[in-house]
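Support reply, case 0932

Customer input (verbatim):
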Amino acid sequence: MTRAIPVAIASLALCACGGPGVSGGARPATPGVNLDLHVEGNQLLYQGRPTRLLGVSHSGSEFLCLRGAGAGIFEGPDPDALATGILSWGHVNTVRLPLDEDCWLGIRGVSAATGGAAYRDAIVKYAQRLHAHGLFTIVDLHWSSPGAFPAAGQQPMPDADHAPAFWASVAGTFAADPMTVFDLFNEPFATPANTDAVDPWTCWADGCRVTQSNGAVSGSWRAAGMRELVAAVRGAGARNVLMLGGLGYANDLTGWLAHVPRDPLGQITASFHLYNFNPCADPRCWDAQIAPVAARVPVVTGELGENDCGRSLLDAYLPWADAHRVSYLGWSWNPWDCAKGPALISGYDGTPTGFGQGLRDHLAVTSP
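Our regenerated output:
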């Protein structure tokens, strides 16, 4: 989200078998079985068993790095303390980390203390510490921008100037880490009004020209499509699972199956974002739009939240997602005002907000 807020450790595992999981060690190798996290049909498997990604997003790493050396890279405590609070919620096995294009690539004036090699090293070490607690990580291209404009917010589509290079670098960095998933672009929102594409799904798949006129980015620029980003990842030699978010800020999957690019490794999942203020926020829409995709490929609800500080949406969606083997991660594990974040917690010890209570209660009783 963040719209409202201006290397392998394969032996460390947590399996959410048929649902959220409990921590455990590595199982003995089984000949002929792919033990890495991977896609088979419409399921994710890890160490040979069906797995869902259940957990939270932790915001901060997409914007603090832009504020100079004194701001740091991550919000909150160290990753060990962060993991302790998250795992106190029950059957949690995943943390999503939003990334910034400028900070990862070390371009457009980012401080050397928080960008480039320093940022990349920090992200890798943070992910490794989370893995040590049995947690998968998802890294996503959250903030980006074209040309010389700083990557200080969300764009309708990934920019062709830097996003393919970003993913080639991320893929090369995490290629040996089977517990990290790549979320290729946080929330695409290409439309005929902001692109030259008559059908925005063709822009989503193949790229297009984006035209903007706002305070952050203005002018016309070329967007990269999902096909180009998938090629960048696979060209770097990474076999990691990929998440591709739909249009409408990842809330629209209507054209996803018809336009999803081919992955030579067959390791693509659909990313769906759900907030109470989204158009597709009721069971009738989920049945019509999400269920057909979930019947074909794994669906990961990469962001899930309520800005009303309540839990009515979660109480409806989480059982539906369980029934359709859909993964989900709450936004976000930050002690912000839930109406502006929205935030799951009021403290990093895991004290929930009203909305966060809905996710915590469900994770506590959902059987692996």
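We compared this against your earlier run and they match. Two observations from our side: The domain at 19-365 is CATH 3.20.20.80 (TIM Barrel). The radius of gyration is 19 Å. Please reopen the case if you see a mismatch on your end.
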